[in-house]
Write a structure and sequence with these properties.
Layout lengths: L1 H5 L19 E4 L12 H8 L8 E3 L14 E3 L6
Bound molecules: FE2/S2 (inorganic) cluster (FES).
The site of FE2/S2 (inorganic) cluster has 13 residues, from loops.
Length: 83
């Protein structure tokens, strides 16, 4: 999330600043890279469950550390919309 904000990708709102309370940093991960992602916490799971656009590749970008495991990662910013 911080990397996308730093690059001025304005479609990533990240309104809570990474406090895992807004869900506006929702992304879809490249399926080939899902195995490199850290486990999802129950809080992240609950927040994503509110989204109309959740799929098996959904994650909150603020919960993904920027390290060598995400080298080359492609993501799609999820559409907005909650249940
Ligand atoms: S920035 Fe709010 S949940 Fe990720």
């Amino acid at each position: 999330m911080e990397v996308m904000r730093h690059e001025n990708i304005d479609k990533i709102l990240a309104l809570c600043g990474g406090c895992r309370s807004c869900g506006t940093c929702h992304i879809h991960i490249d399926p080939a890279m899902m195995g490199n992602m850290p486990p999802m916490s129950s809080d992240e799971d609950e927040l994503l469950e509110r989204s109309l656009h959740r799929n098996p590749y959904s994650r909150l970008s603020c919960q993904i550390p920027f390290d060598e495991k995400v080298n080359g990662l492609r993501v799609t910013i999820a559409q907005e919309g909650s249940k």
